[in-house]
């Protein structure tokens, strides 16, 4: 562990900077903040005996070793045939709380512990809430999670089982965010969508893929995307590997959205770098139903720079992908299955060739939504 300097937050709207030496979730101008570029990662700096994301601790913007870990990261990368092409499935579903969120949460919570946070709160449609509730409980931080009344029951149980306070908000997902924003004076708003240290954690996904592929980058990475923390983390991680001279090529990043709620796709199609109004409908991919992402311009810029794009998956293509994944031994929640559906589309239209190395990020476990999976697959088991 060699990182001891205090990291710097920079505001993309007004340019102000702040030392990341106390809990802070936004700029004084109310914009989100970003961490200044990291110093990079060379392969010799990897703590190879550490079977978690902390093998990359030297490249993280933290002041000391982690105070809390549940063994997050270093998830399996397995190869399976997908419609005649070999795909590498990254099983982020095998994290401690069953979703990729634990990467971001673990680094964010360790940062907040370093700078002395008190009580925290967060809003989430499920997986991030479960992750933050779990890590807060494990760290002894008082925590309250705001959830939509429509969140899957299993996810609510997972959140509540950690012993944190759960506040159920009726109305849209945006109403839940606004309720949490309004509580920002009561306790620290530890939002995974706002906190730069959450993206600092998700960047370890880039390091892991590079290391697990034999210190090579794949050609394509498909990621189920709501707010875009994995896309931003991948972009940041590959930036750092490039900075260190470890890589010269970059993978194409594809953000996969449910067509029924596709804010990034709407902006992408409009050729716009900002949020554009769009019609949202319910989707079974509840984990990526983000009506108003915080970092639209940055996510779209990362996708453009990678020469990738946005794929909007129609609702009727999700269940077949879910079924196909299950038969490959990959039991995931409907949100994660959108990435399989997107790969089918990109193979069919020739955007991705079968001989390329393609990573499909499976973001959440099927155990998160077993009842819903049963309904979608027509499995006649009394649950
Ligand atoms: Zn600002």
Description:
With 383 residues, this protein is α/β, with parallel strands linked by helices. Helices cover 33% and strands 16% of the residues. The strands form three sheets. A six-stranded mixed sheet has the order 4-5-13-10-11-12. A four-stranded parallel sheet has the order 8-7-6-9, sandwiched between helices. β1 and β2 (17-19) form a beta hairpin. α1 packs parallel to α2 (127-139), α5 packs across α7 (229-243) and α6 crosses α7 (229-243). The radius of gyration is 19 Å and the shape is globular. The structure holds zinc ion (ZN).
How are the secondary structure elements laid out?
Blueprint lengths: L7 E3 L6 E3 L14 E2 L41 E6 L2 E7 L9 H14 L5 E4 L3 H13 L3 E6 L4 H9 L3 E5 L3 H10 L5 E2 L6 H7 L1 H9 L7 E5 L4 H15 L8 E7 L4 H7 L26 H11 L2 E5 L4 H10 L6 H15 L9 E5 L7 H7 L7
This protein binds zinc ion (ZN).
Zinc ion binds next to loops.
Question: What are the salient characteristics of this protein?
Answer:
383 residues; alpha/beta; six-stranded mixed β-sheet; four-stranded parallel β-sheet; 12 helices; binds zinc ion
Q: How far do the termini sit from each other?
A: 47 Å
Mean pLDDT: 94
Largest pleated sheet: 6 strands, mixed
- Give the total of beta strands: 13
Element order: H for helix, E for strand: EEEEEHEHEHEHEHHEHEHHEHHEH
Strand order across the largest sheet: 4-5-13-10-11-12
Shape, per Cα inertia axes:
globular
What ligands does this structure carry?
A: zinc ion
The helix count comes to: 12
The amount of beta strand, in percent, is: 15-25%
Task: Label the structural class.
Answer: alpha/beta
| Helix content bin | 25-40%
**Rg over alpha carbons:** 19 Å
Low-confidence stretches: none
